[in-house]
Structure formats: structure tokens, C-alpha cells
């Protein structure tokens, strides 16, 4: 399935070294994002290795430490799941006051089919000792600590209950093709419902441990810091917030009177999207949008027909609710690193 793109836009570049680019989300017309437009989020330069020499090791608190080749992994029972991956910093540019970091707009996210092996399948082969609390994942992605110049691998962990969920998979295909190199070839961890930092690319090693992992990207980065000058009340970034985005019309677009289709997407890290409401008067009144279908791990497309005959300037808002009763707030939860923005989405249009 390919994207139908208006005006043939490209991904917006935030940086080239490392490479960070966002999906032209307002112009993606299909439900699945092609690899060509999938967002790129990197902390370091791309790693270098070959498929033939790629092995995945599993060690730590297991009964039998094992080493798996890609051929071994591909022989195991597979599953395909539709997942939206969202950078934790998606929409960071919308925070007020402004925060440091890549100024993502609405395109730090993409959506498609991932095929691979349940991590649980491999862990059942190695065995899981009863004292295990966390599963640690290490990537080939490597840089240096800014303050010490010491090697810094991209490593994170999952609590055991999330790691052994049947839909936490080690993926080797995206949209029925091998995962592109820039998106984690040949093996990527996919963690549905969590922000994208958990879905580690270029997976190299898995270790089972009996205590919490203290790596940089676990305890320093990808943490909510609610205060400007101290780390009090901080807590880790994990499950995606309920969220929505208006795709069309775009902000500051000039439109004609008559029937106007307002379209967009909504997603959540808990349950599924149960309702999307649209306001065409800046939040005074709300009406329900039409949802396409329920998605547990993906985004749901929605639409609303707006009939407007009076010229002027209008503020359009979208507000999603999920099956757990979580509702997009009017204002975001401000935090120092700019994670998890999910305030009601808004665009301004002019009717002539």
C-alpha cells in the first residue's frame, strides 16, 4: 500500500547528523505510512554491521543463555501487528513556554504493519528465572557521553510483564518488506502502546535482570521533569497519551464557503479511541466526528463535514477520548524536556 500525497511534500528535516525528519502527516492520505515517509529519530550516527554477521544474544537471569541468527528467528512462528510509533517529543514545538530539543510539529509519528516473533517465544526457549524484574535491550546504536566522552550505547529496559506480552515483538519486516536500514534493519523491538523510544532499532543484545535498569536513556533521558529548576516529582515516559491531530484543513489555510471535510487521526496507549469531538467555534460547542474503525495499537482515521456559509476566521479543534475514559486536555502537561504533548489539537482557517 502506498501513500497518496498532495503536492508531493517530503519529510521535514530537523537535523542531519544525527538524522531526524518528520512525516508530512497532514498530507498522508492512506492509513499506512510508507517507508519513504516514515519519520526518522536518531540520537547518534547510523551503526555499521552486516546482515550475515548479525546475531541476537540473550543472557542474564535465564536458564540457558542463547545466541540467535536471523535465520533462526525467521524460522519461528511469526505475527503481524499494526502499530503507530510516536516519538515522545512529537508536537514539542507547541509547548508554551518553549522547551529545548528537536522542535517536532505533528509528524514525529508513523503507522504501519510490523511482522516478527514475539519476544516471549525466545524467552520461553532461554527460560526466565523467577527473580527477573526487567528485560534490558541494547542496540548497535552507539555514541558518547557528552560530559565524559565515554561510550554510550542506546539501551533501555521493559518491566517483565510488558516484555512478555505476546504483542511485544522482534520485528524484521515493515509493510511486507524487510525493515529499511534506517528504521532498524535487520531486527527491531516493537512495543505497542509505548512511545517510540522503547521500540529499539538494530537490536543486538537482551539481558534479564532482577533490578531496575539505570541507563542514561532510562533514568536521565525520556523522563518527565515537571519543574524548570529541579528534578522533583519526575517520572518515566512510558505509555502514549490519548491524542489527535487535524490533518486537513491545514493551519492558516484559506477556504471557500460551503461543505468542508475536516479529517484527521487519533490514537492512544490504552484501549482504543472511542470518540473524537470537533469544534468549529474555538471550543464553545462540540460535535462527534465519524470514526473509521477501532484500533488497539494503531491510529484511527476520522472525518467531520462542516457546513459554513459565513466568511471570517475560525479556530477548529479536535479532542479524542479513549476506552479508558482518558480525554485530551485543553492544555498540555508542561515538562522540561517536552514529552507527551497531547492538548486538544487546533488549526486556524479563513473562510472567504
What is the CATH homologous superfamily assignment of the largest domain?
Oxidoreductase, molybdopterin-binding domain
**Total number of β-strand segments?**
23
Strand order of the largest sheet: 4-3-12-7-8
What kind of assembly state do the chains in view correspond to? single chain
Low-confidence stretches: 1-6
Classify the helix fraction into a percent range.
under 10%
Question: Could you say how many structural domains there are in total?
Answer: 2
Structural class designation:
mainly beta
CATH topology of the largest domain: Sulfite Oxidase, Chain A, domain 2
Terminal residue distance:
37 Å
The major pleated sheet works out as: 5 strands, mixed
CATH class of the largest domain: Alpha Beta
Total helix count?
4
What shape does the CA trace take?
globular
Rg over C-alpha atoms, rounded to the nearest angstrom? 21 Å
Mean pLDDT comes to: 95
Could you state the order of secondary-structure elements as H and E? Answer: EEEEHEEHEEHEEEEHEEEEEEEEEEE
CATH architecture field of the largest domain: Alpha-Beta Complex
Strand content: 35-45%
Domain Oxidoreductase molybdopterin-binding: 43-216
Protein name: Possible sulfite oxidase
Keywords: Metal-binding, Molybdenum, Oxidoreductase
Cofactor: Mo-molybdopterin
Amino acid at each position: 500500500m502506498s501513500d497518496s500525497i498532495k503536492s508531493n511534500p517530503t519529510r521535514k528535516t530537523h537535523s542531519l547528523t544525527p538524522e531526524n525528519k518528520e512525516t508530512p502527516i497532514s498530507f498522508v492520505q492512506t492509513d499506512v505510512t510508507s517507508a519513504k515517509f516514515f519519520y526518522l529519530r536518531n540520537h547518534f550516527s547510523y551503526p555499521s554491521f552486516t546482515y550475515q554477521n548479525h546475531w541476537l544474544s540473550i543472557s542474564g537471569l535465564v536458564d540457558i543463555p542463547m545466541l540467535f541468527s536471523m535465520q533462526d528467528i525467521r524460522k519461528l512462528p511469526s505475527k503481524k501487528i499494526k502499530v503507530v510509533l510516536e516519538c515522545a517529543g512529537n508536537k514539542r514545538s507547541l509547548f508554551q513556554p518553549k522547551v529545548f530539543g528537536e522542535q517536532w510539529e505533528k509528524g514525529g509519528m508513523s503507522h504501519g504493519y510490523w511482522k516478527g516473533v514475539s519476544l516471549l517465544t525466545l524467552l520461553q526457549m532461554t527460560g526466565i528465572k523467577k527473580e527477573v524484574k526487567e528485560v534490558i535491550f541494547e542496540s548497535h546504536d552507539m555514541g558518547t557521553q557528552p560530559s565524559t566522552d565515554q561510550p554510550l550505547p542506546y539501551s533501555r529496559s521493559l518491566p517483565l510483564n510488558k516484555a512478555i506480552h505476546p504483542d511485544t515483538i522482534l520485528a524484521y519486516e515493515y509493510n511486507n518488506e524487510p525493515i529499511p536500514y534506517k528504521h532498524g534493519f535487520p531486527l527491531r523491538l516493537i512495543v505497542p502502546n509505548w512511545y517510540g523510544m522503547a521500540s529499539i532499532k538494530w537490536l543486538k543484545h537482551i539481558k534479564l535482570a532482577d533490578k531496575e535498569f539505570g541507563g542514561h536513556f532510562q533514568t536521565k533521558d525520556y523522563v518527565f521533569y515537571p519543574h524548570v529548576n529541579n528534578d522533583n516529582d519526575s517520572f518515566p515516559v512510558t505509555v502514549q497519551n490519548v491524542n489527535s491531530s487535524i490533518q486537513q484543513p491545514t493551519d492558516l489555510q484559506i477556504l471557500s464557503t460551503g461543505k468542508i471535510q475536516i479529517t484527521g487521526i487519533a490514537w492512544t496507549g490504552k484501549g482504543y479511541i472511542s470518540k473524537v469531538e470537533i469544534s468549529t467555534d474555538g471550543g464553545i460547542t462540540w460535535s462527534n466526528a465519524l470514526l473509521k474503525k477501532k484500533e488497539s495499537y494503531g491510529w484511527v482515521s476520522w472525518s467531520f463535514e462542516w457546513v459554513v456559509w459565513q466568511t471570517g476566521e475560525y479556530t477548529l479543534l479536535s479532542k479524542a477520548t479513549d476506552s479508558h475514559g482518558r480525554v485530551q486536555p485543553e492544555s498540555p502537561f508542561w515538562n522540561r524536556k517536552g514529552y507527551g504533548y497531547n492538548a486538544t489539537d487546533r488549526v486556524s482557517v479563513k473562510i472567504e
